């Protein structure tokens, strides 16, 4: 009995993809301002897809406050993080901002807090409370959303199953589709929410009776 070229599912790709988890992030930019002993703290919080996007956001914050005494910040993206005390004593600004992000279990988030010096020293504890508290309030009041990482996939199937493939992609809210054709059928690239992969594969299995090939993701980049 002959074997269809599209009867194999490469499990290595499937395992890598299904380990990706959903995360909670911000839906839009959020701000909060507080005055502590005549120093004014203004926090800006936003979603950040990459480190480059986080720095772009921070540059924008700085451009809005060119006369601020300090810009302190932190971000958490895909569980990775960085922070800066922005000229304040070590450990008094960046880390409290990061703890505010982690304390609300957020990811893909950047927070920048500017300070206008009010002439009164706050001490290490006062600075930590001011930076951390302002950041936490900006995050607390922000509109949030749960997202699933987008997984780039590459699928091949025969011409007779194209309508099944389209239906599975539509049902699972696939984005950024691109297709090529050859003598065997169609070769489709797309991006799927990671939490939709099981349903996508089940729809293909049922509709094609297993006559498809899931190739390794186009890229292992996490979104």
From TrEMBL:
GO cellular component, one term: cytoplasm
Single GO BP term: regulation of translational initiation
Similarity-based family: Belongs to the IMPACT family.
Entry protein name: IMPACT family protein
InterPro entries (alphabetical): EFG_III/V (IPR035647), Impact (IPR023582), Impact_N (IPR001498), Impact_N_sf (IPR036956), Ribosomal_Su5_D2-typ_SF (IPR020568)
Molecular-function GO term, any one: anion binding
Location of the Impact N-terminal domain: 37-139
PANTHER family per UniProt: IMPACT FAMILY MEMBER YIGZ, IMPACT-RELATED
């Amino acid at each position: 009995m002959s074997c269809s070229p599209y009867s194999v599912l490469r499990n290595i790709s499937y395992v890598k993809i299904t380990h990706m988890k959903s995360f909670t992030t911000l839906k839009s930019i959020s701000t909060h301002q507080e005055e502590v002993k005549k120093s004014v703290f203004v926090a800006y919080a936003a979603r950040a897809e990459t480190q480059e996007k986080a720095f772009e956001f921070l540059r924008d914050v700085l451009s809005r406050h060119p006369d601020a005494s300090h810009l302190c910040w932190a971000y958490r993206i895909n569980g990775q993080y960085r922070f800066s005390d922005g000229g304040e004593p070590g450990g008094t600004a960046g880390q409290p901002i990061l703890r505010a992000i982690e304390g609300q279990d957020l990811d893909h988030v950047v927070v920048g807090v500017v300070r206008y010096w009010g002439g009164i020293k706050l001490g290490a504890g006062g600075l930590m409370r001011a930076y951390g508290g302002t950041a936490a309030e900006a995050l607390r009041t922000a509109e949030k959303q749960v997202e699933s990482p987008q997984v780039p996939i590459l699928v091949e199937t025969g011409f007779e199953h194209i309508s099944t493939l389209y239906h599975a992609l539509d049902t699972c809210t696939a984005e950024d589709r691109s297709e090529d054709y050859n003598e065997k059928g169609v070769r489709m690239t797309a991006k799927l929410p990671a939490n939709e992969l099981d349903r996508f594969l089940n729809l293909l299995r049922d509709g094609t009776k297993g006559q498809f090939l899931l190739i390794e993701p186009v890229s292992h980049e996490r979104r």
